[in-house]
Design brief:
By secondary structure, this protein is of the alpha+beta class. It is 32% helix and 31% strand. β24 and β25 form a beta hairpin. The protein starts with a helix and ends with a strand.
Length: 587
Amino acid sequence: MAESVNADPTTVSPQTKPKKKPHRLLEGITSFLHTTTWILVGLVFLFLAVIFKIKQLIPSAWMPFFNQYIPNLPYFISGFGFLCLGHVRSMVRKQYIKEQQKDVLFSHMWKIPLLRTQVLILYGVGLYAILYGLNFVPAIGMLGLVACVALFFLYLVLYQIEYFKNRLQAGAALRITMMAFVLSGLSFWLWTTFQMIIPSLILAFLGIYSGIYGLSYAGGVAQKGGWLKYILAIGAVAFLAPIAYYALDLRNSQTEALDTVVVAQGLGGEIENLVYSPKGNQIAFNQKINDQWSLRTVGSNILPSLTVKLPEVDDSFHPIFVEGGKSLLIDAPTEGERKLVKVNAATGALSVLVQTGLEPFGAGLPWSEEAQKFLFVTAGGKGYNLNVWTPEKAKPVVLFSSPSKILSPSWLSDAEVVFADGIHSTPYVLNLKTKTAKPVVSEEQVKVAGELIEKDPLVEVLPSPDHFRYLCESRKNSTTTLWTMLLDGTKRVELDKTNDQLSDIAWSTDAQKIVFQKDGVERGFTSDIKGVEVLDANLGTLDHLIPQQISSHSPAVSPDGIKIAFVASDGLWYPSLDSGIWVMVLR
């Protein structure tokens, strides 16, 4: 007992031996390897997702399984990549929380709420990508994509603001205002140079938020650079003012639509002159890629797409469906001369009907489906000839000759054709039986000498589908006027007058609307753009088919009148190197 009482006090029982603290360096290396492993795994998943998106690597024998259960495999794979990256940020956040518990003045404490936001974003994106890969949720669409991009940039701005407030306290207000100036400048640059409407507006709103925050922030210490801060704020306002002016036009009247869908994407080069087939199940257009012109059609699965390369063609041309959509006629230009060429819509076989002298097709109605006749104009001799071609006859027949131009000839009936001559301000009606052309004027519009009262020369005339009135396009100097009148020449009504150039003018099927392309639209960009307009034929009110900040052109009205096809950027709301053909379904 005495030995136990007088035992050496330095002797320590093994149970009470203190634990050895882990070495900080080894702990850091272990943590680094742990996070690095997750980062590498996440990046590998994302890399594989990109590879599977670009190239099909799954064996054909396995495709039925993936098509049924994982139809969107690249997104499914990328989802796991985002989950891995989210886990990495969650680990970092937990480490920061531990450090904060040890030291209440931990220098990175302000990052903890932002890290939590990062984790939520990455986990949310990852779960959505996996569910979309399994086809359990729909695609987010363009609106969802815009929202995601806006939230991402908002997070970056909030992170930068917090960084300035906690790391550069005395100059926080100045740097936040400087960030507002940079964001505003980028917004102006994207709008004017690249016509990126949505990204520009997102940066503009972030610039406004940063500017207000920077001007109102006082902080815990005295702020530096007060006068420079206000100069930067004035510069930001100067950048944003023109964007606000043109962005307000987004509120202007637009055509009411049930839906707007893309029917062809990834169309490189120049796309022009859209036209519907008689049944409305095909769209023909011309395309230029690297100085090579082609005639193309897009249609349903029953009517597959067709591409006909035209190596001899060296300029834009107009396709027109004939023979119930079985064939197309084009005014193919070659070395300054145009040829009338017939194209088989199924095989692409070509046959030349007229070798030289063909005048460009106008915006009239040259093809009569009932009579199976096509009107076209040739130049030669002492003037111009109006010709008719029928599928039954090998050679066209001259119907009428005139020393003046014959513009936009259109069928009124089997016995009458209406056209303009580019000189007088009223159209002419040609009687095919008597071979005489008379101006469409009322008695009070004729002078005593029998000459026509002239205003602006008429360059196009289009009879309405209900044969109730004419749509007339007049041009004088740089002014274009659209007006209507009844078939007897009475009740002339001016609908629109503009200094912009108009083209691709067409009636809607119900004869209540007029659709056309307007060139030279100024929307604050470095170069003017094209836009598609819809004009009310009764009220004279003008609507934009789509927001006028988006470049669009080459409208075509479907035979049933409920759809309008047009050419715009591949992504519609943002510029692209490729074009797309879009169809708006009207209400």
